[in-house]
Write a structure and sequence with these properties.
By secondary structure, the chain is α/β, with parallel strands linked by helices. It contains six helices and seven strands; from the N terminus they run βαβαβαβαββααβ.
């Protein structure tokens, strides 16, 4: 199986489905990651620090994705927190290029009701790029939550995240938490949702919902069996 995770920013891929990617890779699946946004320039006005931060985030992403067993991680450079300044078609075309390159059977991406506008548009672009034309290779499209974005929308940007698919990650959760340590600038102390303790608690919560020790949760966009 070939899987593709399309994320808006560095760290979204691990927050959203890092333990699932680790489990799939351990089971022999090809796991690929695409990160659309540069993830840094909205944090300051000076362009040079923004560029150096972008390179640092990319290196952190490479290390994190290696920990969960990803075969490849590719980067676009869409403007951080400004995807809405771009024509949607431009984002769709970039996603289509990676779908054609990887030819994944399963795709993971953001939930459309997130607070972050880049997450919303990433989801819309992925749904468009993987639409069910004849010959479409993507058989399953799943959306994930991103702690500190999905739950903080409080249903104001669209339907709240309502998972109906769960992956038992009892054996791979530690890989996710280890991968997140690569993102030193993105982690926060508890009780922030991007703290190690909160991420473990989220996995435990979804595990209790699904009947296992730990789980990552997804909302099925579409699936072909």
């Amino acid at each position: 199986m070939r899987c593709l995770t399309v994320a808006a920013h560095p760290d979204d891929e691990i927050l959203g489905c890092g333990a699932t990617m680790a489990r799939l890779a351990a089971e022999g699946a090809e796991v690929h990651v695409v990160i659309l946004g540069e993830g840094a320039t909205s944090r300051g006005d000076a362009p040079e620090p923004g560029r150096s931060e972008t390179e640092r985030l990319r290196e952190q992403a490479r290390r994190a994705c290696a920990i969960v067993g990803a075969k490849s991680v590719e980067f676009e450079a869409l403007p951080d927190n400004r995807f809405d300044e771009l024509p949607l078609l431009e984002i769709v075309k970039r996603v289509e290029t990676h779908v054609a390159r990887v030819r994944p059977e399963r795709v993971f991406t953001h939930h459309p009701g997130d607070l972050n506008v880049d997450h919303q548009l990433t989801c819309r672009a992925v749904v468009t790029a993987t639409r069910t034309l004849p010959g479409q290779v993507v058989r399953e499209l799943l959306s994930f939550e991103v702690p500190s974005s999905s739950e903080w929308a409080f249903g104001t940007t669209g339907p709240a995240f309502a998972p109906n698919c769960f992956v038992d990650v009892g054996g791979s959760l530690e890989r996710k938490l280890e991968a997140m340590t690569c993102y030193e600038s993105e982690m926060r102390p508890f009780p922030h949702p991007r703290s190690a303790r909160a991420l473990a608690a989220i996995a435990t919560r979804w595990g209790s919902t699904a009947g296992c020790e730990a789980a990552e949760a997804f909302q099925i966009v579409r699936t072909l069996r």
